[in-house]
Amino acid sequence: MQQQNIPEETTSFVGRAAELAQLTAALREQRLITLVGGAGVGKSRLALHALHTLHSLHKPPGKHVPQPRPGAAPREETGTLYWADLWPLRTDELLAATVADALGIFDHSPRIPLDALCGWVADRTVLLALDSCEHLVPYCCHLVGELLTACPNLTVLATSRQPLGAVREAVLPVPPLAPATEGVTLFRQRAEAVGRPLHALADRRLATQLCTRLDGVPLALELAAAQLRHHTLAETADRIRSGLDLPDDPGHLGPCDNPRRPARHSAVRTAVGWSHELCRPTERLLWARLTVFPAAFDAALAEQVCTGGPLTGDELRSALAGLVHKSVVTAEDGSYRLLDTIREYGRMWLRELGESHQVAARHAAAVVELSRKARAEWLGARQQTWYERMEELYHDVREALRFLLDSDPAAALELAGNVAFFWVCCGHLYETHHYLELALACTDGPSGARTQGLWTLGLARLLQGDHEAGHTFAELTRQAALATRDEEGLRQAAYLEGLAALFTGRPLAALAAADAALRDTRATPGPAFGSTLCRLVRVFALTGAGRLKEARREAETLREECVHLGEFWTRSYTDYQLALIALFENRAGAAGSHARDMLDAKRRIGDRFGIALGLELLATAWAQQGRPELAALAYGAGAQHWDMVGHPQRGTPEVAPLRDEGQARARTELGDTAYEALFRRALHADRDQVLAWATHPDPEPGL
């Protein structure tokens, strides 16, 4: 089986043979399985290990195997595993969009995310894991019900502290580890990992007593083992035996509807609270403040948000290292995160300190500042870095927007406008549309942020296929820019107007809009965002109008400037145009070279829409070169990406005849059966493998 975005297993998996066998069997017989258990009991770990086991066995997740269409080649897809983290979500408003992101769906249609999900999964064989559903149970129940109804070959594995309550849900309880056997094994392994192996018989007896006291709950055992870095096993066991007078907050560390919790929840509270008590005061303060991060974070952002009072820069770095050593914070590849239960406990203490609003405001301010830098440095050598950074900060941006919409709508509008071009490129069109509409509705009066917001909302609507909205928002952007004498906004309005004209097959209108904007702003020194976009529209328009020599000359000039700047987005579209021009001029070799350059640039910034465009041009170049096997594979790869993107038009109108001609040529040379087999092989291949194959200078005629 293929797997996409499944987290790695970073520690050993202990025990659970019976539960794993039961889950594996259920995944072959049931379509919805929910692993249910208390906080820290290991639901996510069991689900993750089961998925890795399935992947290693290369077996499909369910018995619902789709049949090929009559006359088509046999289906080669064996199923794909996906993992969606739901714990960063505070509310349900972007639940479906979050799951779509996990499946790699970069929908460019006006559909709501749930419809896009159902349309993309359709009859694919998919196993989808939804991790941490407990705070969104009714919404997850509805989402899963809709998906299972519409997608006959979908299997869902959920983890939650309570069942979803869905029809035909198979609920598998996840108990703690057996304290005297599996629990001790886990504790001994983790103790050895921190440099305190348990060799003596007395130590093993103490370990058994401790594991029994902690009820075999894995999170409690992990936290207890982490304390061996600083305390002896005897001290640790004494501490656990004595218990602690811990704050009891039923709404946080146990099931929401059960204040009389079983003993294992007391074990978690004891271990988490004990870890908290053993922290230095500054470590406790940092623990509380770190709960503002909805997902993973890096040390620089933590320092920017969490310093203050006794937490100086040096002390914060020391405290962060201490929390990592105590297993309160997990660290991997330069990033950090808090487990759900530990975050909940820290949030309780943040409320007790009275700092919740203050820390959230600092977090939002830090995100806004980063977004300003990203926008200012978009047209330059740090562009790729900022695309990666904005994707890393995706959950932080959403959290900051949620906070600012209530506390500072003007700042929310600025933030949404700053990140929107990055989000649009990376396929977050629904989120862009959602937050910009909210922010625009909460603000009024002319401002640069409002101009930017109107422009980007129009761009999102246009890329979702609403061409009329492109014209409407171009005019709204122009009016807003005139009100503030914003020349950059005027150029962006012209770009939006020109792009709308290009999508509707009116290249001369696009050329007129771009020329008017560039004629009025030629004196502007150096490259600028709006003028660069207008120059790109001009290249597209010249190509669409058949003025190929002019288009090639201007595209080559613009490309050279982009190479000098170290910029990729504009450069990739100049390569797209140069490939298209070469195809019109029957220079298939040059077209293929430019298409590969475009794909490499789009890969760097995560632009799946651009990748889909580039794959089809590359396929057409190979078809013109008499390489039908490669063409069929590339057309299949392009179809795979168009499925993810969901764009109704697949580029500007002049591309369609070239695509149709290339597909017909490759199909004629190969025959229908051979063409379909190659096409379907690429259609269901691993996305990254396909892209690596396509960008190779001399790819093999296979995947």
Automatic annotation (TrEMBL):
Stretch list, region Disordered = 244-264
Q: Which domain of life is it from?
A: Bacteria
Q: Which InterPro entries match?
A: P-loop_NTPase
Task: State the name under which the record lists this protein.
Answer: Regulator
- Protein source organism: Streptomyces spirodelae
